[in-house]
User: Which sequence fits this backbone?
């Protein structure tokens, strides 16, 4: 499996589209990366860029972007609301798939060294890539901002990790860069019905982990309380792993709480939103919506949608699309401009293009493709699709039951069944394409050359490997469809009685999927030379077939008695 890194450089230009385009063109000139998002801000005069790819390609693209930014941005003329100290202000690498944080740190430091040596830009390594504890914090590395950089880089304490440590005309133009390795960070702004930066800052201090400095008497003007080391004592905020400041955005005419959620497993976006709502309300201010800067993982949006559905005592076993819609509306993510999940959710951006998969087709398109002279999709893919329909029917009954008048005390139980049913039909949908891919692997193996003994051996090995895959996939369909019967049985027994026939049809579909997939297991078993493997697979398949028939009969008996 490919190792995938994300890079999220922040460039100190958010107003000149020509300059921004020059930088992103430079990044995209590197083969093997995919540009995900370009998010400029006029008030901050800053653009957040996101791209992904294999590690070496990402490092090369990051270097190319940093080089171009140093050529086209003059920091001596820069102004903006956001803290900054360089043309490429920060450049974090983020592990996305099949790569550890330790490996990511190595790539970040390699990039930092190259930027320092080849571009003569002062570089500070931060977060996980930091060489010292004090430099883990981006705020510490960037303290004093651009205006304090001339004095800062010449001190022993803040000598750059890489690159020159003395002020030059070139550095006056490029500034410094912070390069790091970090977990997925969500840049998230909450909109307020006020224009007061001071009041926005007060709310930010209430929620951010660092909180505010403790003072004697008046909380604004009183003497700062210090500890035994002379360091200011702080009153911590309510949200862990959260940085926040308040600012006024002239473009929208409102104040915002601008937050960096540095670990959304600790403080998710929906928790941050609700906490800001509460703290704002205590100060007589109302939250009107929020804004996502850059990208967000799919799971974070699903967690948010489910959170708000639970608050409404509604079932969370609905489509991802509907859950995301609930999240968007609940947090007002579309207040300032439309929120497009396809452009804001990272998995949607790096996934396969719509229409390339069988499951992306319309029902009519899928039927026509099945009926064509092409041998795939065949019975295996159709079995998986039928199983998905069956599990979806069970899910539907659970959702209807969770909303039934008079059953309010049972909504959580039915929501849990709906989520379980959704898990089954989602997995079965994946199998629709997996089965066709397995068939294509066999066809490709049979098409390999066989002009000499070496090629014949390699071809035979490929055929046997593909044949095993073509048995394993339909067995997976059998297991999923069989297990989904538990949802239909529960819904037949205690679900909405007006929908009991739907639970019955769901059971019929599930059993059909089991039997259809079983035929595919058996037909591919005849071509497998590994008899022990065949015996093991067939034993599992027979057991699932017998059990599915028994469960179907039990469910249909309940259905017939209730009709």
Assistant:
């Amino acid at each position: 499996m490919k190792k995938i890194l994300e890079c999220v450089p922040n460039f100190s230009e958010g107003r000149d589209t020509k300059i921004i385009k020059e930088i992103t063109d430079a990044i995209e000139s590197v083969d093997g990366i995919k540009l995900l998002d370009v998010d400029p801000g006029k008030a901050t005069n800053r653009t957040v860029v996101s791209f992904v790819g294999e590690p070496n390609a990402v490092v090369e693209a990051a270097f190319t972007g940093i080089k171009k930014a140093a050529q086209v941005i003059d920091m001596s003329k820069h102004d903006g609301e956001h803290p900054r100290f360089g043309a490429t202000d920060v450049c974090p690498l983020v592990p996305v798939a099949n790569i550890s944080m330790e490996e990511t740190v190595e790539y970040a430091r390699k990039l930092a060294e190259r930027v320092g040596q080849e571009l003569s830009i002062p570089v500070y390594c931060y977060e996980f890539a930091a060489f010292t504890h004090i430099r883990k914090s981006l705020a510490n590395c960037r303290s004093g901002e651009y205006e304090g950089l001339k004095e800062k880089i010449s001190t022993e304490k803040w000598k750059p990790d890489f690159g020159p440590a003395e002020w030059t005309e070139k550095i006056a133009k490029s500034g410094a860069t912070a390069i790091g390795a970090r977990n997925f960070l969500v840049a998230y702004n909450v909109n307020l019905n006020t224009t007061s930066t001071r009041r926005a800052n007060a709310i930010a201090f209430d929620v951010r982990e660092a909180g505010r400095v403790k003072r004697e008497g008046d909380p604004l003007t009183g003497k700062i309380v210090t500890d035994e080391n002379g360091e200011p004592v702080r009153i911590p905020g309510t949200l862990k792993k959260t940085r926040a400041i308040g600012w006024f955005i002239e473009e929208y005419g409102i104040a915002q709480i601008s937050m960096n959620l540095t670990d959304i497993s600790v403080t998710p976006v929906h928790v941050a939103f609700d906490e800001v709502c509460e703290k704002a309300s205590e100060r007589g201010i109302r939250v009107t919506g929020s804004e996502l800067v850059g990208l967000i993982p799919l799971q974070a949006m699903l967690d948010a949608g489910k959170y708000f559905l639970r608050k409404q005592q509604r079932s969370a076993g609905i489509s991802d699309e509907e859950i995301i819609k609930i999240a968007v509306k609940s947090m007002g993510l579309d207040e300032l401009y439309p929120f497009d999940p396809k452009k804001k959710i990272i998995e949607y951006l790096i996934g396969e293009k719509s229409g390339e998969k069988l499951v992306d087709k319309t029902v009519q398109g899928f039927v026509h493709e099945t009926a064509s002279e092409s041998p795939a999709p065949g019975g295996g893919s159709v079995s998986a699709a039928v199983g998905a329909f069956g599990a979806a029917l069970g899910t539907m009954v659970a959702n209807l039951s969770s909303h039934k008048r008079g059953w309010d005390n049972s909504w959580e139980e039915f929501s849990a069944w709906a989520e379980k049913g959704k898990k089954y039909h989602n997995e079965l949908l994946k199998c629709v394409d997996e089965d066709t891919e397995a068939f294509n692997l066999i066809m490709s193996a049979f098409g390999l050359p066989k002009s000499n003994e070496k090629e014949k051996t390699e071809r035979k090995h490929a055929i046997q490997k593909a044949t095993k895959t073509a048995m394993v996939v339909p067995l997976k369909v059998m297991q999923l469809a069989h297990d989904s019967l538990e949802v239909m049985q529960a819904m037949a027994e205690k679900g909405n009685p007006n929908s009991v026939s739907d639970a019955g049809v769901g059971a019929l579909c599930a059993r059909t999927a089991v039997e259809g997939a079983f035929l595919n297991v058996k037909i591919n078993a005849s071509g497998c030379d590994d008899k022990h493997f065949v015996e093991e697979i067939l034993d599992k398949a027979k057991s699932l077939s017998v059990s599915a028939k028994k469960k179907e009969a039990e469910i249909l008996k309940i259905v017939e008695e209730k009709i």
Remarks:
- The chain has three domains: 4-181, 186-295, 358-562.
